[in-house]
Structure formats: structure tokens, C-alpha cells
Amino acid sequence: MRNSTKWLAAIAPAIFFVCAPAADLRIPLGLPPVQWPKDNPYSREKAELGRFLYFDKRISADGTVSCATCHHPDFAYTDGQAVSTGVKGQKGNRSAPTVINRAYSLAQFWDGRAASLEEQAKGPMANPLEMGTTHEIIVTKMRKIPGYSPLFFAAFGTRNLDIDKVAQAIATFERTILSGGSAFDRYKAGDKNAMTPAQVRGFDVFENKAKCDSCHEGANFTTNEYHNIGIGTDKSDPDVGRLKVTGDPKDWCVFKTPTLRDVARTGPYMHDGSLKTLRAVVDYYDKGGTPNKNLDEKIKPLHLTDQDKDDVVEFLKALNGTGWQKIQVPVKFPE
């Protein structure tokens, strides 16, 4: 596979420093070292604080929604739904992407409107359809929970809780949600029996006949770039995607390319959850997407056989990894 980390490495020194894996943060086979922001380095205490905050529903306006509501380990850190549900049962218009391997992504959300995981963590809190509250109210709530004070002190050396520290802790925890060591990783490491014959054939179709790796490449199977593949463009009022962020007509109905890690566990698929199965996804790409005024030039009919399609689906299953399953949902929260 082509190496999508080359262009990232060129810009990373200005933003990140590379943190050698801590003894308590093991990097699964097939993944590069995690790069930590200069202003939010890793610590076990910060990640542990973030774990509590990530699962704590008290952050939301009515105490019913946490980060994990839309990104839960039971669904490989998605919610298993076409679109997410927030406070008061309100429905959003986009599918919740997985948090797995989010440490290796750049801008966040389907449209890339958040520059970092820290910024992303703040977004749903103040979104009226998601957590339905404000940053000020969240800080007030957290300050009234005495059990959080020593956790913030252990993580930051101060009990002065603010929304930036809340976001930094959550982002630190999220960067520990890693998936590697898949059948594919073991195969690439030399174990030629790790993948089935169908998966090996599917890998060949993925790379050569279908050229899926033109967008899904590198250790995390994504270029972190944005494309219009036609999903939703045939609607009367389509989600215009990244256009709202940049204002550039070239970004009409353009969305971020997601990771394929654990993709067999994270359906339904696409930004609107409109494709229910991996086979449906392969069929969609095979037909050349949905024609529209801004369709990416890479999206063309693939002319795959049924065997090709079956094999690609089997290959995608070989990307199911390990690591994130070790994270435990808190059974009790600070009081």
C-alpha cells in the first residue's frame, strides 16, 4: 500500500511532538507511534480523567447523553445507528464516525470543521441537538462534583477546572482508543496464514482492480482528505458537507474519507448512514457512485465481478483489530 504518512510527516513537526509509547499505552501491531500535541502531552492520569468524562452523562443538559452515547465500545465506538440521537430524543443528520484510531486523524467531523480532537470534544457539548448545554454550565456542574477535583489535580497539577482541561482530558483518552494487530497486520508482518484465501484475493482487488487505496491508504486506511462520492446528492436539499466550512464551491457535498479499521463493526456506512452493509458499500462504488456536478474524478464504474465484491468484503473483515476492547466502561463515577 502507498504510504499516506509522508505528507503528514511534513507538517507534523510544527504541530506535534512524537511521544514514545508509555509503558501503559501499548501501540498495537501495524500502527505508528501516537503523536501528541505539544500543549496536551500524554499522561496516564489525564487519560483516566478523560475516560470518566467521556462516559459521564452528567455533562449533558438532562443527564442522558455522554460522548459514549454516540461513540460506544459496544458498537466499536459508534452507535450502530444511521444518524445519532441527542438529548430529548433529537435526531441529527449525520452518522457517528468511530473514535477508533482517531489519534491518527487530522481535522475532525465529517466536514473537518474542528482542527483537533480537543476542539471536537467541545462541539457536541454546546450543540442543541446533541448534549444541549453550554461550556459554562458544564464547568459549573463539574466543579460541584467533589470527586472530580483530585482527578483534575492529578492530571493537570491544579484543581482549577475549565472547559479546555475537560476537552484535553477527553481528547487524551480518545487517543488511547487504538486498533491494530488485525489479520491484515499479521499477514503484512509475515504470517501468510493470517488472512484467508478470499481475504488475500480481496486485498489484491482492493489495491489493484478497484484502487480503493487511492483514498484508503496507509496504516489507518485513509488519506484524511475529502471527496464527493455522490452520497445524498440526489436529494432535493442535500447535506452540502465541507462547503459550509470553507465556502468553496469545490467542497459542495464533499466529506472526509474515514478509516477502514474495524469497518466491519461500524455500520451503517457513509456520512448519512444510508448504506447498511459492506456489500452495499462495495456495490455503490462499483456502479460509480451517484452522478452529480461535483463528483470526484476518482469515482468511476469498477466493473467488479460478484466474486471480486465478495472477496473485498472478506478483506475488509480482516481489518478488525484489537486494543480498544481492553478499555473498561466505568462502573462508578466521581461523586
List keywords for this structure.
mainly alpha; two-stranded antiparallel sheet; Cytochrome Bc1 Complex, Chain D, domain 2; 12 helices; 335 residues; globular; single chain; two-stranded antiparallel ribbon
Quickly describe the structure.
This protein has 335 residues and is mainly α.
Describe this structure in words.
The chain has two domains: 174 residues, Cytochrome Bc1 Complex, Chain D, domain 2; 143 residues, Cytochrome Bc1 Complex, Chain D, domain 2 (Orthogonal Bundle), CATH 1.10.760.10. The termini are far apart. The protein is built from twelve helices and six strands. It is mostly helical. The strands form three sheets. It has a two-stranded antiparallel ribbon.
Q: What is the topological layout?
A:
Elements: H1 5-11, E1 16-18, E2 35-37, H2 44-55, H3 67-70, H4 117-126, H5 135-143, H6 148-156, H7 163-174, E3 179-180, H8 183-188, H9 197-209, E4 226-227, H10 243-246, E5 255-256, H11 278-286, H12 306-317, E6 322-323
Antiparallel strand pairs: 1-2, 3-6, 4-5
Helical fraction: 25-40%
Looking at this structure, what is the CATH superfamily of the largest domain? Cytochrome c-like domain
Instruction: Tell me the quaternary state.
Output: single chain
Mean pLDDT: 93
Give a short account of the largest sheet.
2 strands, antiparallel
- Corresponding CATH architecture of the largest domain: Orthogonal Bundle
What pattern of helices and strands is seen along the backbone?
HEEHHHHHHEHHEHEHHE
The shape is globular
CATH class of the largest domain: Mainly Alpha
Counting helices, strands and paired strands, the structural category is mainly alpha
Q: Which strands sit side by side, in order, in the main sheet? A: 1-2
Low-pLDDT sequence parts:
3-21
| Tally of distinct domains | 2
Span from first to last CA?
49 Å
DSSP summary: helix tally: 12
Radius of gyration: 20 Å
The CATH topology annotation of the largest domain reads as Cytochrome Bc1 Complex, Chain D, domain 2
